[in-house]
TrEMBL record:
Lineage summary: Bacteria, Pseudomonadati, Bacteroidota, Chitinophagia, Chitinophagales
Family: Belongs to the MurCDEF family.
HAMAP family: MurD (MF_00639)
Major localization class: cytoplasm
Gene name per UniProt: murD
NCBIfam families found in the cross-reference section: murD (TIGR01087)
Protein name, per record: UDP-N-acetylmuramoylalanine--D-glutamate ligase
Localization (cell): Cytoplasm
Catalysed conversion reaction: UDP-N-acetyl-alpha-D-muramoyl-L-alanine + D-glutamate + ATP = UDP-N-acetyl-alpha-D-muramoyl-L-alanyl-D-glutamate + ADP + phosphate + H(+)
MF annotations from Gene Ontology: UDP-N-acetylmuramoylalanine-D-glutamate ligase activity
Length: 466
C-alpha cells in the first residue's frame, strides 16, 4: 500500500488487504459527498475503500491520505468494488453504467451519502428541501431563519459541506439539507422531520428514462418514510405535485403554500402580505419587506417560513430573517451598476424554468446573456417573457443555434459571442441607462467553463473591469 502522496502516485490498496467484514464499505465517487461518506464511515468503524473512475481533486486526495483511507482514481477495481458489503454511490453516477449493472446483479446494497449520514444523525431534527428550482435559495433562507433564532444548525447537502462530513466533523442539533433527486434515488430509511417540495419541472429526464412520472416519483421519495408526526410542505400551485398527491397520498402532516388563494392553514399571499398560518400564531408581513424579490421568491420565502414555524421558531425571528436574508452567489446576485446599468449574476440558472423565474422578477428592460450546453431545452416556455421584457439576447456558447432558432424572432437584437469578455462587452453596448444585464444561461456551462460557479465568477470579474 502506498502512503506517500505525490503527483505520480495514487494512494490505494489491494483487495487482499481489506479484511472480510460485514462493515466493508466501498464509496464510488470522490467528490464532496464521497469524501464526506468516507470520513464518516471511517469514524464509525467501517472498512473504507474509495473508488473514482475519474481524477480526484488534490484537496480531496490529501484528505483521504491524512485519514489513512485507501482510494483509487482513473479506474474502478471491480474485484474490490464487487466484494463490498455495502456501496455508497455518488449522485453523479448513472445506473446505466456497466459497473452499476454488475453491482445490481450481485445485489450489493447501494445507498446514498444522505442515507449514510442519516444513519448516524436520526436523533437530530432534519429539514430536507428538494425541487427542480429554488432549492439552494430556500435551503439558505431556512438555515438563516434557524441561525437567527439562535439554534445549533448546519446547512448541508448540495450546498456547502456534505451532510456526512458535517455529521462526522461538526455535528449539529438541526440539519437543513438541500437534496437532489439523484440523492433521493438511493435512500432507504432517510426520514426528515420536515420535507419541503418546492416545484417539479422537467429536468435530468435522461436519468429517468425520459419519463416525467419517474422524475416526479423520485422527488416524492423525500416523504416516503414520513409519518403523521412529520411535516410535508409543498407548493399547491404546482400541477405535477398536485397530480401526484391525488394519485398517491402521503402519510405526513401536509402544509401547502400558494399565491393563488387564501388558506386556513399553510402559506398564502393576501393584500400584498405573506401569511404563514401554522400553529397558534400567524406570521404576517408585507411582501415589500421580503429580502428576496420576484414571484418565485414568494414561494421560497413561504416554504422557509413554514419550516421555521413547524419547529416553533418565534414569529418575530421569522419576520426578521425573511427581511434580512442576503441572496446566494450565482443566484440572482447583484454584481454592480455601471453607468446606470445593473448587472445580475444568475449563473445557477441551468434550465429554462430558472430563466423564466428570473425574467418574471424583472421590472426593467433586460439584456439577457444565455447559452452553453443545451440539454434539449424547450425555449418556448420563455418566449412570451422574452417578447415582453428582453430588448436583446447575447448568446454565449460554442453552439448558439438552438437559441437563435427558438428566440431570434422574439427580441429586437441577438448577437453571438464565444467568451465571457465578449458577452459582457456586447451586453453593455446593447444596454442603456436603467436597463439590467442578466446572466441567466438556461444551459449547462461546460462548453466554455469548469462549472456554473466558474461562469458566474468570470462574469463578475469581467463586469468589474468595465
Amino acid at each position: 500500500m502506498v502512503n506517500e502522496l505525490d503527483n505520480n502516485t495514487t494512494y490505494q490498496t489491494a483487495a487482499t488487504s481489506l479484511p472480510a467484514s460485514g462493515k466493508r464499505l466501498v464509496i464510488l465517487g470522490a467528490g464532496e459527498s464521497g469524501i464526506g461518506a468516507a470520513l464518516l464511515g471511517k469514524q464509525q468503524g467501517y472498512e473504507i475503500f474509495v473508488s473514482d473512475g475519474g481524477a480526484i481533486k488534490d484537496l480531496y486526495k490529501q484528505e483521504l491520505a491524512v485519514n489513512n483511507i485507501p482510494f483509487e482514481e482513473g479506474h474502478h477495481s471491480w474485484d474490490i468494488v464487487l466484494d463490498a458489503a455495502e456501496i455508497v454511490k455518488s449522485p453523479g453516477i448513472p445506473e446505466k453504467t456497466e459497473l452499476m449493472k454488475k453491482v445490481r446483479e450481485k445485489q450489493i446494497p447501494v445507498i446514498s451519502e444522505i442515507e449514510l449520514a442519516y444513519r448516524f444523525s436520526k436523533d437530530k431534527k432534519i429539514i430536507a428541501i428538494t425541487g427542480s428550482n429554488g432549492k439552494s435559495t430556500t435551503t439558505a433562507l431556512t438555515y438563516h431563519i434557524f441561525k437567527t433564532a439562535g439554534l445549533n444548525v448546519a446547512m448541508v447537502g448540495n450546498i456547502g459541506v456534505s451532510y456526512a462530513k458535517q455529521v462526522a466533523t461538526a455535528p449539529a442539533d438541526y440539519y437543513v439539507i438541500e437534496i437532489s433527486s439523484f440523492q433521493l434515488d438511493d435512500i432507504k430509511e432517510f426520514k426528515p422531520n420536515v420535507a419541503i417540495l418546492l416545484n417539479i419541472t422537467p429536468d435530468h429526464l435522461d436519468r429517468y428514462e425520459y419519463k416525467m412520472e419517474n422524475y416526479v416519483a423520485s422527488k416524492f421519495r423525500i416523504a416516503m418514510n414520513q409519518t403523521a408526526e412529520d411535516y410535508f410542505i409543498y407548493c399547491k400551485d404546482d400541477p405535477e405535485i398536485m397530480k401526484h398527491l391525488e394519485q398517491q397520498p402521503i402519510f405526513s402532516t401536509t402544509i401547502p403554500f400558494t399565491i393563488m388563494e387564501p388558506l386556513k392553514a399553510g402559506g398564502f399571499i393576501a393584500n400584498d402580505q405573506v401569511n404563514i398560518q401554522v400553529n397558534e400564531e400567524p406570521v404576517i408581513m408585507s411582501i415589500y419587506d421580503l429580502a428576496l424579490k420576484g414571484k418565485h421568491n414568494l414561494y421560497n420565502s413561504m416554504a422557509a417560513g413554514i419550516a421555521g414555524r413547524t419547529m416553533d421558531i418565534r414569529k418575530e425571528k421569522i419576520r426578521e430573517s425573511l427581511a434580512s436574508f442576503k441572496s446566494l452567489e450565482h443566484r440572482m446576485e447583484y454584481v454592480a451598476t455601471v453607468r446606470g446599468v445593473d448587472f445580475i449574476n444568475d449563473s445557477k440558472a441551468t434550465n429554462v424554468n430558472s430563466v423564466w423565474f428570473a425574467l418574471e422578477s424583472m421590472e426593467r428592460p433586460v439584456v439577457l446573456i444565455m447559452g452553453g450546453v443545451d440539454k434539449g431545452n424547450d425555449y418556448g416556455a420563455i418566449r412570451e417573457l422574452v417578447k415582453e421584457k428582453v430588448k436583446a439576447i447575447v448568446c454565449l456558447g460554442v453552439d448558439n443555434s438552438p437559441i437563435q432558432e427558438a428566440l431570434s424572432k422574439d427580441t429586437p437584437a441577438m448577437v453571438n459571442t464565444g467568451s465571457m469578455e465578449e458577452a459582457v462587452q456586447a451586453a453593455f453596448q446593447l444596454a442603456t441607462k436603467g436597463d439590467v444585464v442578466l446572466l441567466s444561461p438556461a444551459c449547462a456551462s461546460f462548453d466554455l467553463f469548469k462549472n456554473y460557479e466558474d461562469r458566474g465568477r468570470q462574469f463578475k470579474e469581467t463586469v468589474k473591469e468595465l
